[in-house]
Description:
One of its GO terms (cellular component) is mitochondrial outer membrane. Pfam families: Mito_carr. InterPro entries: MCP_dom_sf (IPR023395), MCP_transmembrane (IPR018108). Solcar repeats lie at residues 116-204. The protein has nine helices and five strands. With 301 residues, the protein is mainly alpha-helical. The strands form two sheets. A three-stranded antiparallel sheet has the order 1-2-3, with no helix packed on it. A two-stranded antiparallel ribbon has the order 4-5. Helix 1 (2-30) packs across helix 3 and helix 6 (180-204) packs antiparallel against helix 8. It is 63% helix and 5% strand.
Amino acid sequence: MADTCGQIFLGSGLTVLSHPLMYIKVLVQVGHEPLPPILGRNLFGRQVYQLPGLFAYAKHIIKIDGKAGLFNGLVPRLCASTIGTVVHSNILQKCHERGQFEVLGGCQKAEGGSLQHILNETTKEMVARSCATLVTHPLHVITLRCMVQFIGRETKYSGVFDSVVTIYREEGVLGFFAGLIPRLLGDILSLWICNLLAHFINTYAIDDSMSHTGEIKNCSQAVTGFFASMLTYPFVLVSNLMAVNNCGLAGGLPPYASVYPTWVDCWRHLSREGNMSRGNSLFFRKLPAGKTYAIDQKRFF
């Protein structure tokens, strides 16, 4: 219980600190570009036209809504973080208790660090994460829609309970789970890629006789986690777009987005347009190839 409370407090603090970053990222994912391209320098020092980055975007939001505007959608996100931590912790504990029961019942326990051990632990983590995602996804949808309201200056989703009523009245129960499938797929793929890749690196590329082996293995876990998140980013993008698609907000309707019948249609459209990595980076943002900036619509087409 104490560990869970500690995780909740730590998670809530990180959620508050990272919220402006997520807010800007979501607006970029939707395609909202309120500021025109500017002449800057890339990583190699060459002058190129770039899209305004994180800090310029944040200043624009502050100019319109004040500093508090950077925290639109924070309340439902904090609720999702707290509930998700509790669910994840409880499910994971039950999975471990079941594993211990199987060992007492005569099943052989896999050695720590072995492939079988990694498979077992990853499966437990997958179940716990999936349950937490399933339970908190309605709050995730509300969070995204509170953020996307910035584009059309709407106030349709003004609070958690009002948003619940609005979604249920207009879309039914399924509206709370818009974008769930690509989000689950992305989480599961990212987890398996990260853990398996880290296991093979730690087993076959790192010699246990080396000094600072523990630190190196932790570093490899972080690197593979970053690599896995890059590979599965399209699932995050598609999930977020489907969560706000055709929900009555300007950011989920043409011209910002087509109306997609399924998430697969959204994926195909983004892939065809070359936008599968949109919003992945908030620094050194290059202009989309073959696109023209529309000042009045504040987007590229």
